[in-house]
Amino acid sequence: KRILVSSHIASVHNIKDQSFNTVNPDIDLLKMLKQSDFPVINPQTKEKFKQTILQAKNIQDSVGGVIETIVTGMPTGYGDPFFEKVESIISHLLFSIPSVKGLEFGAGFNMTEKFGSDVNDSYIIEKDSIKTTTNNSGGIQGGITNGMPITFKTAIKPTPSIGKAQRTVNLNTMQETVLKLKGRHDPAIIHRVVHVINALTSYAMLELIA
């Protein structure tokens, strides 16, 4: 069974795209997103994202966002309950990407507001295969793949290099001053980072199955 890694821009600033179907994902959609230079699920959201980025550029500022990733076709039983957990391997690689400030697997932080009975994934048999009715665990149980799609979201902070004046300290004089950078500055890098995340996630899957 082929392993497929795909991501989309889930949000830019306070604008959100649709989310993946994490139980029965649309494989054709995932393939399309993988080939896109600005991957979003809802085409109308793309224009809103671009407008938000251009608005930040016009005021010499920047915006961040969230990237949602899904891995399909990963067999059951890979990973380890301790140091080689699936989450650990993915996180180790993704936190090497500049501007990554957060990572959540499956339902992530939303699970903290619910009971265990609300977020525990129920197992069923479907077409002679074992699967879960929900995928709150993000395809990972106790650090090991459970056969469901692996899902996670990555937080990308706003680009720190901006043209707007900012307070800082001159280390030579030890005095407070104002920093105003000149030159070209990216108002957002999230549409570039999405492809890096795909690449490093693919590498993580290779580490797990090698």
* Low-confidence runs of at least 5 consecutive residues: none
β-strand number: 11
Helix proportion: 25-40%
Shape: elongated
For the termini, the CA-CA separation is 16 Å
Quick summary:
By secondary structure, this protein is of the alpha+beta class. 28% of the residues lie in helices and 26% in strands.
Molecular structure report:
- It is a single chain.
- The longest helix has 20 residues, at 190-209.
- This protein is α+β, with helices and mostly antiparallel strands and 210 residues long.
- It has helices at residues 27-35, 43-58, 86-94, 116-119, 190-209; strands at residues 4-12, 15-16, 65-72, 100-105, 123-126, 129-132, 140-141, 144-145, 150-156, 166-170, 175-179.
- It is built from five helices and eleven strands; from the N terminus they run ββααβαβαβββββββα.
- Helices cover 28% and strands 26% of the residues.
